[in-house]
Amino acid sequence: MKNLRKEFPVLSQNTYLNTASSGLLYDSLLDYRQEHDLDFLIGGSTFRDQQEKFLNTVRKSIGFFFGCTPENTVLTPNFSLGFNTILNGLEKKKKVLLLDEDYPSINFAVANKGFEVCHAKVNSSLEQNIEEAVAKHKPSIFAFSLVQYTTGIAIDLNFLKQLKLKNPELLIIADATQFCGTKVFDFNTSGIDILGCSGYKWLLGGYGNGFMLFKENVLDQITPDTYKKAASNTDYDSSYTNLRARYECGHLDTFNFGSLQYSLQYISKIGLSVIEEQINELSIYAKTELTNLNLLENDVISRKNHSSIFNIKGDQKMYNSLKEKNIITSLRGNGIRISLHFYNTKEDVTRLVDELHRYR
């Protein structure tokens, strides 16, 4: 992994602990992006002639990487646009279960559209809280982040399988933006009906790309009858009227989606299982060190498994002090968020811990 760090120029000047905010651009992806735009530069409109054929290869790459058919893989500039499109097509009488203090792109998007809402608390008993909320409120939809963006608390994927088995009519929609690219994952065998992700964080795809994955027949089930009726009564090209067109309306940027495809191939060459092992090792090390400093909340400490996102006790002054030392983090919630990817090392964590010792 240390050899890979040379591809990420930011790492030569900074201790970068902020992938949960933005993944890094790397040398070979920059080369790809420059070649892409050179082709556009010399090709003009002829460059666009292969657009749809190319985007089909992107759908196949995403589907292969995450275990979903290309037909059920939708391209979208980001998770939020895809999620809002889903919500716009659902009946507002449906009740939606949310996690308290989840990402605003989920919770505010649901609340401002007039759905009836209920909540489950995010703490050390997260899965039990969800199960009890489903039994009590009987929601039609459960929408949530797989990893909480402030605390890093991650929902148990096996729990989601069991939840779906016990509640087959519950539509489970997951935002995986803080998850995809950190663990080996097969959507087809998961308990999730719809999974969405923006590609600019752990997938290192840069900005302006994302995707939505749908289990078989789910895309059809959530498409409004008015849309399907209108589509059946026109002779427009199917690219304007198929089930994906609600999400893929307008021209999709081959620069952005090509960047995502390139990064999926880059991650595959490293090996996602290798990346997962590296992240897990860093996460365990960081959790131990930060626990020893009494900088983590009890809800995080008591969880058996955790992501590589941690929110440590700290304020603006501490954040500024770390930034002055070129330790890049984020202010989130009531503390300072750090996040570790495969290009991080134990030395990065040690440097953070050493600075925190000095600060105290």
UniProtKB/TrEMBL annotation:
The keyword Transferase applies. GO terms for molecular function: transaminase activity. The keyword Transmembrane does not apply. It holds the Pfam family Aminotran_5. InterPro entries: Aminotrans_V_dom, PyrdxlP-dep_Trfase, PyrdxlP-dep_Trfase_major, PyrdxlP-dep_Trfase_small. Keywords: Aminotransferase, Pyridoxal phosphate, Transferase. Residues 45-352 form the Aminotransferase class V domain. It comes from the Bacteria. PANTHER family: CYSTEINE DESULFURASE, CYSTEINE DESULFURASE 1, CHLOROPLASTIC. This is Aminotransferase class V-fold PLP-dependent enzyme. It comes from Aquimarina rubra.
